[in-house]
Design a protein that fits this description.
Blueprint: E1 2-7, H1 10-20, E2 27-32, E3 42-43, H2 51-61, E4 65-68, H3 71-75, H4 78-84, E5 88-90, H5 98-101, H6 103-112, E6 120-123, H7 126-132, E7 140-144, E8 153-156, H8 159-170, E9 182-186, E10 191-199, E11 205-213, E12 216-218, E13 222-225, E14 230-233, H9 240-260, E15 267-276, E16 279-286, H10 294-297, H11 305-314, E17 329-337, E18 348-350, E19 362-366, E20 369-372, E21 375-378, E22 382-390, H12 393-404, E23 412-413
Parallel strand pairs: 1-2, 1-4, 2-3, 4-5
Antiparallel strand pairs: 6-9, 7-8, 7-9, 10-11, 10-15, 11-14, 12-13, 14-17, 15-16, 17-22, 17-23, 18-21, 19-22, 20-21
The structure holds adenosine monophosphate (AMP) and glycine.
Glycine binds near residues 227, 228, 286, 290 and 293.
Length: about 425
């Protein structure tokens, strides 16, 4: 098969690496890709948000299968356009991507079917939102409806802080049209975990596994949110019966609700849960793999990744009873530029990367680097993500940090405590 991956980050580096291993992948392409992805795929400098250019590329190159990494091209309807040309594509169409692109869309489905989620109210007028603050307990959570690159959720601890943020969103429009509608939501307490399933074009749900991300920049989960500073999979205390509950209580009713409105979702169903003392509640749904969670899941898969993605897109997931996963742990540590998620220096030199070789137990994924002669330069906020396997979470952690130690990057930063909640 000729396979095209869309995207250029650490998740897409991982997608390319594991798709390339598949015996059915004869040729791999990536749009736009990166210098590290170029080692695996032919990269083309096409804007992934330009649907016409992407579709034309697929027709010209006779691409058999397209895998979309990030949410933005999904929200831009790339799957709809490729399907019109009969190009088999992994990921949901524009209308079903609303599970991720509109928090109100997702919450309304939950409300309709009594699916456990935080209590919430929706506002499209600043004045009404501010008046409502007299009725809430603090902390409370303010969310913009649309996509906001992981920055659209603000936990506020006082009425003043809430008013200030509502004004920024609704008057100053700091999130543009994504903040035209907002949600004010009950603050949930408990541990946060991610659950991943694949759904096929017939609505068949194949649970994959769990992971735990570390979204805050600082050790002990303090400071501003980031795209994710490290993750591990699986979450040790989540057992088979929990996974069954996630599917029955959450994924199935949501997929069925869409089906009843003639919306056929297929692709990744990535649910963020808070495990409250009253049971799991769903926080958010994403319709693509998590980054860096994907980098902890793919190394554990014994089932061929390309087979799974293809089966999701062709309605054949029922051929897999359950995906086969290694019975061990994988930990991923993200290396970011010092200063991220605020300002940071660009084009700083990273040494030591050429001396590390990936094998079945360890992987270096590049999120934003470029090659300058024989050197790697850091070009963005989250720059590298290092995965390692281990028979226990502790072993996986030791193995991952042993690789991190080999990287010599004075302008880099990483958290030393990934996995801390379960490694006390
Ligand atoms: P989201 O984009 O919805 O995943 O929100 C980003 C982060 O904000 C989540 O990963 C949680 O850590 C936190 N968060 C979101 N909603 C709530 C809530 N209702 N209660 C507590 N924390 C929340
Ligand atoms: N790591 C969080 C996400 O991919 O949304």
């Amino acid at each position: 098969m000729k396979v095209l991956v869309i995207g250029n980050g650490g998740r897409e580096h991982a997608l390319c690496m594991f798709i390339k291993k598949s015996p059915i992948c004869k040729k791999l392409y990536c749009i736009p890709g990166s210098d590290s992805i170029k080692e695996l795929a032919d990269c083309f400098d096409i804007n992934p948000m330009n649907n016409i250019d992407v579709v034309n590329f697929c027709i010209k190159q006779k691409i058999d299968f397209v895998v979309i990494g990030p949410e933005l091209p999904l929200s831009n309807g790339i799957v709809d356009e490729l399907k019109k040309e009969k190009v088999v594509t992994f990921g949901p169409d524009k209308i079903s991507s609303q599970l991720e692109t509109s928090k109100i869309f997702m919450k309304n489905i939950c409300k309709k079917h009594n699916i456990p989620t935080a209590k919430y109210s929706v506002f499209n007028k600043e004045k009404d939102a501010i008046n409502f603050l007299n009725e809430v307990n603090f902390p409370t959570v303010i969310k913009v409806d649309g996509l906001a690159a992981g920055k659209g959720v603000i936990i506020v601890y006082s009425k003043e802080e809430a008013v200030e943020n509502i004004k920024k969103i609704m008057s100053e429009k700091i999130f543009g049209s994504s903040g035209e509608n907002i949600i004010i939501e009950e603050f949930l307490e408990g541990e946060e975990i991610s659950f991943f399933a694949l759904v096929d074009t017939n609505g068949f749900i194949l649970p994959l596994t769990t992971a735990q991300d570390h979204k805050k920049i600082g050790e002990g989960d303090v400071g501003p949110n980031t795209g994710g500073m490290g993750a591990y999979s699986p979450v040790p205390f989540i057992k088979h019966n929990h996974i069954n509950d996630f599917v029955e209580q959450f994924v199935k009713p949501i997929i069925n609700d869409l089906k009843n409105s003639s919306i056929l979702f297929s692709g990744v169903f990535y649910a963020g849960f808070i495990l409250t003392k009253n049971g799991p509640k769903i926080l958010e749904i994403n319709v693509r793999f998590g980054d860096p969670e994907a980098q902890t899941i793919f190394p554990r898969l014994k089932t061929d990744l390309l087979d799974l993605l293809l089966a999701s897109s062709t309605g054949n997931l029922n051929q897999f009873k359950l995906p086969e996963l290694e019975n061990n742990f994988c930990m991923n540590v993200v290396l970011s530029s010092k200063g991220y998620p605020k300002d940071y220096k660009k084009n700083t030199i990273i040494n030591g990367l050429n001396e590390i070789t990936n094998d079945k137990s360890k992987y270096v994924f590049h999120a934003s680097t470029k090659k300058n002669g024989n050197h790697w330069l850091a070009t963005g906020g989250r720059v590298l993500s290092i995965s390692a396997m281990g028979s226990t979470l502790k072993n996986a952690k030791n193995n991952a940090y042993n690789i991190v130690d080999k990287i010599d990057w004075k302008d880099g930063y990483f958290r030393k405590d990934i996995g801390w909640r379960h490694l006390q």
